[in-house]
Design the sequence.
């Protein structure tokens, strides 16, 4: 999409140099506002389901994070912009007090978008002062705040896409037509020997707590696909009755598919027999060579079973992909439940809630998507969503036993 | 509130004179926009519950009504502003095709508020031409369209009030403090002899189909309170355990009160033991002399039982109030289910759905409120809402057997 | 069904003679046990939905009623059979303390059926003593207890029918085939002049509180069908798309029909294009000449609208049917909401909850069904159920304006 | 409980000798009937929640399993007892056709308990003939059928316990008082070196598909508690606000605990400040030395966090417990999601649904409980339930990092 400038990518050098830090901070913060630029104040206020949040809320919550985690602790003279915002823009931190109920974020016509932007400016000013004064000391928190904001940058796109799809007018986030994809090569696999491999994050750069500790796992030999499943391949599954044949499905997945009357990925629109796909550029004719996305873990697993393959575990994925270029076009669902690594230690204090408390009922996704800010992704990165989630940029990478 | 100019009130003379009709049309249509004036585009997009609608939707739906009921039929050269609007802004007319689901009206960030205003201007221009050309012929439909819009004018206030109450910032629709109420006189009743009385609408002026046919009913002698129950009186019911004593409640009402944990009227806020009340002017200290409002039929009936009285039937109300000045401060819940009058005939065609299909599961309210446009109310007017509804300007008027 | 012996019918002479009272008591109580006779203990324990109750519960609750309303008050030396039964078998009397939740009545494998029968014997013995000692004094309560039990006798049949329909084996309550119906005469109407008519109960015999006070109402001339709508006539409505055409339906009814995928009366079974009907004798081929039953008020109203007629009000029904033979084959849904009569006074004390608190959200049915014990019905009798209820023996009688 | 005779335990020798097989079959089948012996037909019909099944259903379903998996395939002349039973008693096999809805199993008053027992006798006779004729050939299916029935034997106890707890009379399944527990030793841990360990089932004996293939995993050093957490220890967690402090809880667990108002394990009854516990012997005073049970995974994990420990992974559990005596007193919740082992292959055909399709959204439990038939458990056995399940005999075993 060309929305992530090279400048942002270069920012992740891991330096504590204050000048660079200030520039990093400014670049990440600017990108959020840039992502909201094509949208009206009304667009920024919509919440189309409890799992998604209004764009305005993302803009404010990421700001609240800096205010709470950095300014409140380290900037002794900082005056909060508005005390009510601690209630409105806390996401899920029980340790930081009560919160506005998540499903009601779309009711917040006030504060207005322009006031949220003023809030951002107020916090940015104080943050720049703080970075100038105490850069090295606050570095871990600063990096966390920036990576946190980058996570929300991807969510801004997933959430506005869902909001616009909920509007019968099917508006486009970005004008113009997407570039036609090139023909994809035949599906191929690379073989891996397995054995003892090192997984998890270690070293200097930033990582979330859930990526550690680094440790060794023992893998059996396996094969991993060199590319994602395409829309055309997925269509063959559909044409073969994939959504009507329980033998391919996990029990929970089949129940969900039946209850929700799934018969295609989210955003596929059946128009008199042909398929259109709703994109950030509006509805487009289905392109069979494009990577299939907006499938749940359940659908990914059912597709794999139908195709005679399986999904990789997160450790197979990490061992195979290793230091190769990331992000991918879509996040890869893995066959791994989101459990803690052996010896896992959450962040301290209220930030302990950042990742650890969600280690139940979710599946791991790996690799990043086109919408992931480039400096944000790592081979050890563990994204996670419930197995039924479909509004993320999530796709399918096959694995097999040799 | 001073929001309804005297000019509007005078409009209802029932004339078919085109000049007056054009002025009537312009005045009613202008008031809707005027009611939205204190609100931002974001405010106008919020839907706080399925029963309420966004202000923007009210502005568009009332316009769609003129477009569909008048322009599409009588203005042969009329070009619809946007064909998609027939889907977006049809409220509940099965006969006019499928509709955008009611609970999702708040997701419509597009069309933007300014586009809805352009839609209004487009339709207004065509309507003024149509009135000029065919005033007499279209008069019944024109009047219906104007009264329909007036109904929505009151709903705009009930709905924005609910939306703002759903926002923890509790914003005010109108600045300033409400005028303090004067001390109320002691509760008094007027006696009525009953006998055969005429009810229902007849004569020249406009009335909805549900007000007819006029017919005779036989009433027993009864007494009707000369004023509504006040907040102070209602507080005595609460202090006497009114919300915890099932003996005063209808079975459905008790179940609802328990399930929803009702312990006061909607919009009452318990602040460290004292009561505030959320109003269109924002939160205000409870004024015991003010009329209690935002109670459900269930609460009204429970209060009446506790007080040793009952609610009036709609015919007692109509016989007693007769030609007295209306509207009142709040709508009076009656003890009458919303059933059809003997010989009831709905409007023709798609408009048959206007009132008739709702004659099940609802209770009749009478008399109008401070928010009812003055020319809109009549002694025969039958408003109706489910017995659990609390977001309307609904209050309590007591009755008794002699 | 031949299940109500002539002896029972004669019992309702309204005498206070103790010998007759004892016989009345014994006859009514015996009939309940007789109704349960074709059923196993397992059959008697099933609750197929929250609205229905297990047969065993009916047998116990009616006994609890005598224990609570009569023995506990008037039989000073009476020892309750089991103190826990006050909790288990109180139906809905808030004034008599907490109750076992209604939807969980089917979980009561204990007390066993045979223990409930022992409970009945214990109470019956004490009741016979009480009647012998204080017959005249307790007469109003005794009569209420007997009529209360008769209400439950009809419910025992409606509830076991629903329970057996919930079992894929579709067992029959009674063996054998129903007697073939005779050909029905053409639909005919009798005209009534209207005017002032007396309605409601007065005089010596027993009546429920909701049938009074007797009062006068003013009716317009009307016509009432001389028989109920048949299955064949209803089938014509279905074949004409009755369940797919919203123009005939009340709004709530249409929503219910859509949500519940109604396409025929309850208990109609589509077997390869033909219709069977589940009866107390098990599934039977549809008999077009039989009276249609197990329709909701919503379906009754939709049918009437489709047929170009309407349903009668409860007062039209009462004025027209008057002292004619009751009960009918099915209960007639009326177009009257279940509201209190002018001057309505509930029973005293806890019995105030018997009828009054249900006067909201329900429609009146008149006339009784084949399953109503003969001495139990009156021309003034007001039965009531929610408009969506279908498991009662409820049918359609048409009315019209002249 | 003395309910599992030594004879049953010896049955699991893995021989294909027909005489022994016939005895094995008879012993397992007899135990199911023996478990139902203290119950009335009414008791056997109750279903207290969708997750639980009536005892009668368990008795019939296990019989259907033999009928379908063995007789229908291998006994060429076998005549099914009743063709309708394939619909009534199929549990969840999509491949074997439609099923009676799980939440409605409690509505099946027919077939009667005595008919289900006749069904068992019919199938047992045919099975004994089949074993005599083709013992070796059918051995894998026979063993599966027996282990399947043993799984249901434990469920019969968990389900009747839940059913009786749903009855306000709190009946006892077994008369008499439980033997007082001996004082427990202080909590102690054994250290394990970790490293590469072999897990999963291999060799001759029976195992479910989900226990294989055997494979190696790499473990870090860890410590495992030598006994389960007691009620007294759990009470300390409760007294320290364990149910009110979100910092110990997983996010889903906290949401569940709040929504369900959990404040103690299932079956704990607060009686005027003291705790009783509902057991198969009826309510008993809380015994602090007894092992805590009927906690969900969420509660187990919260307790462990509060205590400064964690739960073991299923591989730590298996490595540490190894060949030690099983079953335990309660099942141990592990910190492992129920994912497939590398190279997992489900059973063939319809039996593929036995385990594989449930590998999503569940947690692994290990070790067995007092109610697990002795020959049924293995060190490699993987039981699984949703993290919110509390009606199983599930407890807490702590683990720690060295």
Sequence:
């Amino acid at each position: 999409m060309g929305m992530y400038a090279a400048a942002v990518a270069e920012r992740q050098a891991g330096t504590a140099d204050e000048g660079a830090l200030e520039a990093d901070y400014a670049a990440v913060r600017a990108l959020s506002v840039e992502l909201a630029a094509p949208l009206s104040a009304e667009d920024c206020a919509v919440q189309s389901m409890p799992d998604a949040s209004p764009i305005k809320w993302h803009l404010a919550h990421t700001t609240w994070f800096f205010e709470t985690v950095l300014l409140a602790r380290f900037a002794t003279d900082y005056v909060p912009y508005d005390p009510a915002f601690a209630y409105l823009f806390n996401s899920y931190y029980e340790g930081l007090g009560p919160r506005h109920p998540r499903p009601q974020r779309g009711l917040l016509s006030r504060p207005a978008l322009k006031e949220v932007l003023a809030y951002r400016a107020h916090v940015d000013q104080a943050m720049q002062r703080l970075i100038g004064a105490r850069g090295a000391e606050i570095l871990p928190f600063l990096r966390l705040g920036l990576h946190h904001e980058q996570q929300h940058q991807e969510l801004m796109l997933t959430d506005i896409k869902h909001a616009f799809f909920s509007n019968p007018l099917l508006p486009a986030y970005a004008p113009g037509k997407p570039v036609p994809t090139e023909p994809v090569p035949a599906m191929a696999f690379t073989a891996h020997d397995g054995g003892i491999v090192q997984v998890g994050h270690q070293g200097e750069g930033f990582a979330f707590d859930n990526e550690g500790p680094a440790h060794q796992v023992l893998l059996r030999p396996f094969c991993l696909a060199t590319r994602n499943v395409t829309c055309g391949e997925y269509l063959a599954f559909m044409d073969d009755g994939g959504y009507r044949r329980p033998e391919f499905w996990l029990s929970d997945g089949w129940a969900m598919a039946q209850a929700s009357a799934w018969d295609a990925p989210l955003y596929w629109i059946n128009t008199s027999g042909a398929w259109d796909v709703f994109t950030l550029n509006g509805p487009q004719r289905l392109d069979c060579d494009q990577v299939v996305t907006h499938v749940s873990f359940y659908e990914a697993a059912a597709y794999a079973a139908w195709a005679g393959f399986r999904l990789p575990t997160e450790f197979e994925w990490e061992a195979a992909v290793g230091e190769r270029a990331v992000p991918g076009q879509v996040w890869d669902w893995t066959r791994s439940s989101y459990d803690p690594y052996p010896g896992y230690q959450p962040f301290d204090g209220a930030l302990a809630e950042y990742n650890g408390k969600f280690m139940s009922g979710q599946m791991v996704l790996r690799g990043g998507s086109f919408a992931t800010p480039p400096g944000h992704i790592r081979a050890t990165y563990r994204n996670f969503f419930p197995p039924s989630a479909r509004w993320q940029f999530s796709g399918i990478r096959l694995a097999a036993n040799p």
Q: What stands out?
A: The longest helix of chain B spans residues 113-165. The two ends of chain B are 37 Å apart (CA to CA).
